């Protein structure tokens, strides 16, 4: 009887934890990729992947796990994302095959104006120190708390308090400082020390020490409040007052009304059929999805010039075609893109077949053409209606039911605006607006009139959470972090896998290139260099080569459906992530 009672107690404990007694515990991959049978999470930090996998093992679905992973990422890597930022979520619901895109991008405060950065001095010295990048004027109304709550409300199955529990635990016990986090803390340390909370992270040292634990008890209290009261805990009451107070002390213009009035917006995702697959991706205010689909359309029209093969790495001819295919859509971004709730976006005209063909006709297989050779102005139809009005993380989740979540979330530059409120690192997303027409932001992207700041506007983004479907079913879930390089990295990884026969892990690990029209430079990675033969063939075509540390960081889950279902989850080794699942 004693043995039976012990077994019964053990079973009851497992049930209270929300786990079946037969459930296998989630497993963290041994390296940057792993293969799982039922469910998988690919995030750019091992603790965040583990948090999402824990929620899946406790009976949650992909929406619950994505929310838990987002919250854990904000704790594990406060340089990249968190409750003080915002992003986009693309969700596939297996029960009805529906696709939902949630925009929880930050919004400009009501006091924002197109000329708000004219003649404003830099708040302090150091890197990324313009008024749109550092301090209170850099901060938009955060959207992540509302985005998490909305994702769970629509699709989740667990209470928010249970979903937040892994992040609360991580904040209380502390996260081990990674080399990447330590490096960023050294670069931005002098600015971070101006903030009373972030100053305590350093303990008198110049940088966070690799291998030490960063504990964040104040953030843990805020996470608990979110779990118990939902998004209202952030947008109303004590925490809202703390956010406004910290923002005003840092020179900002946020108000309690700005926070109270924030809303998540559902938008129709962009979709296109290319190379035998359906691509579903981010709509405006992201320009990333448009860039992806237009690049694919141009590549299809010139594919006889580069010929995909499945028996070798992508050729220099393909990399040249890829770089050229990006120049036109990045020019469109400069001229036309803004918040679709405030700006007339002529997407149909921009994607017209004759316009795509004109860009394909401008391509030369042996020459790098000036970006302006791909310019195809649309005329007055693109007028602004209401012009007055690598810190980033991406994650993928696939659950046992076949639901899929692709989420990209950010505080913009490392450690956002480099100040905190209620334990939250606040974003500097206002730098994604155009500070002035023709002026470049921190990623070299030139701003146009449609993307000038204005009350309640959402800045243009490159974030590109993407699903690739085959015969109506998800095949790939992927996306990236890395500013303007997000979409080019996402596209490359998908094409390397789908067209060139690379495994999912090989596609993520392979060297990448980037071109964004302006500046007219072909960028390659120092962390994963392109071989001399292909690089030489590209420079011989006239590409101006500019090496950078790395192009972007991609997370991916490859879904092998049907009998013998397999999920191959990959977290980009460039950022040190590891996937988890079972």
Structure described in brief:
By secondary structure, the chain is of the alpha+beta class.
Measured between the Cα atoms of the first and last residue, the distance is: 34 Å
Q: Total domains, how many? A: 1
What about the largest sheet?
A: 8 strands, antiparallel
Given the C-alpha coordinates, what overall shape results? globular
* Structural class computed from helices and strand pairing: alpha+beta
Treating each run of at least 4 consecutive H or I residues as one helix, how many helices? 18
Per CATH, the architecture is 4-Layer Sandwich
- Count of extended strands: 22
Mean pLDDT: 92
CATH superfamily: Gamma-glutamyltranspeptidase, small (S) subunit
**How much of the residues is beta strand, in percent?**
15-25%
Biggest β-sheet: strands ordered side by side in the sheet: 1-22-3-11-12-4-5-8
Q: Give the fraction of residues assigned to helices.
A: 25-40%
Question: What is the class in the CATH system?
Answer: Alpha Beta
Radius of gyration: 23 Å
CATH topology: Glutamine Phosphoribosylpyrophosphate, subunit 1, domain 1
Low-confidence regions: 1-22, 381-389
Topology (elements, then pairings):
Blueprint: H1 2-16, E1 27-28, E2 33-36, E3 40-42, H2 46-57, H3 62-76, E4 86-93, E5 98-104, H4 144-155, H5 160-173, E6 175-176, H6 179-192, H7 196-202, E7 213-214, H8 217-229, H9 232-235, H10 238-249, H11 256-260, E8 265-267, E9 270-274, E10 277-281, H12 288-301, H13 316-336, H14 347-350, H15 353-362, E11 391-398, E12 404-412, E13 420-421, E14 424-425, E15 466-470, E16 473-481, H16 486-500, H17 504-509, E17 513-514, E18 522-525, H18 532-540, E19 545-548, E20 553-560, E21 566-571, E22 580-581
Parallel strand pairs: 18-19
Antiparallel strand pairs: 1-22, 2-21, 3-11, 3-22, 4-5, 4-12, 5-8, 6-7, 9-10, 10-15, 11-12, 13-14, 15-16, 16-20, 17-18, 20-21
